[in-house]
Amino acid sequence: MQSTGHERIIILDFGSQYTQLIARRVREAGVYCEILPFSVSTEEIQSRKPRGLIFSGGPSSVYDDAAPRPNPDLLESADCPVLGICYGLQLIAHGLGGEVQPSNSREYGYARLKVVDATSRLFAGLPKEMDVWMSHGDRVTTLPEGFRMTAETTDAVNAFENPARGIYGLQFHPEVAHTPLGAQILRNFLFNICGCKGDWTPAAAIAEQIERIKERLGENGQAVCGLSGGVDSSVAAALVHRAVGGRQTCLFINNGLLREDEFESTLALLKQKLELNIQGIDASQRFLDALKDIVDPETKRKRIGALFIEVFEEEANRIGGVGFLVQGTLYPDVIESVSVRGPSATIKSHHNVGGLPEKMNLKLIEPLRELFKDEVRLIGKELGVPNEILERHPFPGPGLAVRILGDVTEERLRILRAADRILDEELRRAGLYGFVWQAFAVLLPISTVGVMGDERTYERVIAIRAVTSVDGMTADWARLPHDLLARISTRVVSEVKGVNRVVYDISSKPPSTIEWE
Ligand code: XMP
Question: For the chain, which residues make up each domain, given as ranges?
Answer without folding.
Answer: 8-193, 202-390, 403-504
